[in-house]
Amino acid sequence: MRFVESTGKTIEEALGKALEELKATLEEVEYEVLEEPTKGFLGLIGGKAGRIKVTLKDRSGDIARGFINEILNCMDVDLTPNIEKDGSVLNIRLDGDGNQMGHMIGRRGETLDALQFLTNLVVNKNSKEHVKVLMDVGDYREKREESLIRFSKKMARAAVKRKRPIKLEPMNPYERRIIHAALQSDPYVRTYSEGDEPNRRVVIAIKK
């Protein structure tokens, strides 16, 4: 979270300097007085400037929640966004009715990926620091990852048995990375991607 320390003859002066440096308004920050200013002898000499710490408020969660709720309302979907901030990562999980969660996941997670992409854009539109948005619906991504790992190992065995490369169905970058990671230590096969988005796919080939 971005912050600055500022000094001034008064707290108001120090705060004004900090707001100018942060290019922020008073409503966008919170501040802590580190040292109160003191007046010198007869108000002329020996005075000490005040010092404050001014921190930009983190509004990424509120922005994400507002945007997601607007999308859910437009789609007439009753799901609840649960949001947690971990450093620069905003973890968002949509929970609710199972049937409605399926609508938000879409085919191979395409609807979920699109909503995650749009939320990233909205959250970072006016943000002074980049926030990475990771979104899930229920436990979809965890279950999908487990399924892809099992599938990749099954296809690796098939490639070895047939002694020829196997081309998988087109996948998004996230899912391709799971396949590559699952087979990177396999002693018999190697993986690479081919094709252009959105039809880029993983190929499982025999190691020479």
UniProtKB/TrEMBL annotation:
User: Which parts of the sequence are annotated with region: Jag_N domain?
Assistant: 5-55
Q: Which domain of life is it from?
A: Bacteria
| Record's subcellular location | Cytoplasm
Sorted alphabetically, the Gene Ontology BP terms of this entry are: cell wall organization; peptidoglycan biosynthetic process; regulation of cell shape
Which CDD domains does the entry link to? KH-II_Jag (cd02414), R3H_jag (cd02644)
Record Gene3D superfamilies: 3.30.300.20, probable RNA-binding protein from clostridium symbiosum atcc 14940, R3H-like domain
Which PROSITE patterns does this one have? R3H
Keyword Ubl conjugation in record: no
Is ATP-binding tagged as a keyword? no
Keywords of the record: Cell shape, Cell wall biogenesis/degradation, Chaperone, Cytoplasm, RNA-binding
| Domains (record comment) | Has an N-terminal Jag-N domain and 2 RNA-binding domains (KH and R3H).
On assembly, the entry states: Forms a complex with KhpA.
The protein here is known as RNA-binding protein KhpB
Source species:
Peptoclostridium litorale DSM 5388
Q: Which gene encodes it?
A: jag
